Amino acid sequence: MLAGCTHAPAVELAERLNALTGGALGHAFYGSDGASAVEIALKMSYHYWRNKGVAGKKEFVCLRGGYHGETLGALSVTDVALFRHVYDPLLLHPHLVMSPDSRAARDTETSEDVASRALREVHALFEARHLDIAAIIIEPLVQCAAGMAMHDAAYLRGLRALCDRFDVHLIADEIAVGCGRTGTFFAFEQATLPDAPAIWPDFLCLSKGITGGYLPLSIVLSRNAIFDAFLDDDISRGFLHSHSYTGNALACRAALAVLDRFEETNVLRKNQLVGLTLTKALAELAADHRIESFRQRGMIWAFDVRDEFAGPRFAERFHMQGRQHGLLIRPIGRTVYLLPPYVLNSELAHWLAERTLETVNDTLSQLDDHRHAAGSAVTLP
Ligand SMILES: Cc1ncc(COP(=O)(O)O)c(C=O)c1O
């Protein structure tokens, strides 16, 4: 662990990430996995307000269906019953607000309208309780564990404005959606309108893709003003938080190699091109009457199999069928999603689309057979 020391890869990594935020997020705190990054952001937000003399700000806000990890703090701001229910008596109870999931659009509503509706709920909550609220935590653009629930970037802009107005920290959990996954290096970049000043969260959590999956590392980037609130000779004002592998040198070096690769081979541009190929190759599936809400954001594709076709144990059946086709796909409920690695090329994109369609066909015809068999079993005496 760093324990007050540092080393070249940790410094270089912090500096390069800072540069990628245009200097907005000038400090990096290291952890070893996603959940520890979320713990760090939550603790640091509360401690910041305490150092500023507003210790009353100790509540958190999170989104319905959000997922932020499974340690106690991270699980507290996670709204997935499967992971939460046993430990609920041990957890903090944050405020839950509506997800801006575009699929929640009613009648003629656009995804921007859904974002506005979700923001009105946050507004009402902040108006009533902002003196008690330290931070709101979100997964920008795509709530992954909620079933690749995608939302309009207007939500991020609106939330930034509300957080500024009511003095609430905005924590962007980019553990899954960072490092190019949504098409920009940071998902939050898409909140900024062309020709407008860049907007950023107060904390940004990264993990997973930052080392290309080779070594465990997580990072919490934060604003200089947050760092400054901890810089004091009084130890109780310091941020005392460490893990055995905080700032592990080899992991930081792996992250630097990933950043090199992004620069040298223009990964974002290459992904954009191969992404178009995959979207085109998936067109037949997108138009299939058994499928709804086909959606894409950067290198994430998802669609829902209509309820009437999905049937019992759909996710498990699809997963097993996929393996027979050489695919490793793990649906969430009736949502099938693709998060291909960035080695994807045009040939693999076609292969992936074909195999996915075959897997859908095989799984749904198996379910159909199952339904018919169940139907005849009922009619037989
Ligand atoms: C958005 C998000 N936050 C936090 C986590 C937790 O990360 P870890 O599993 O490394 O603790 C994950 C993991 O899937 C995630 O997707």
From TrEMBL:
One of its GO terms (molecular function) is pyridoxal phosphate binding. It comes from the Bacteria. One of its GO terms (biological process) is biotin biosynthetic process. CDD domains: OAT_like. Keywords: Aminotransferase, Pyridoxal phosphate, Transferase. The keyword Phosphoprotein does not apply. Belongs to the class-III pyridoxal-phosphate-dependent aminotransferase family. This is Adenosylmethionine-8-amino-7-oxononanoate aminotransferase. The lineage of its organism: Bacteria, Pseudomonadati, Pseudomonadota, Betaproteobacteria, Burkholderiales.
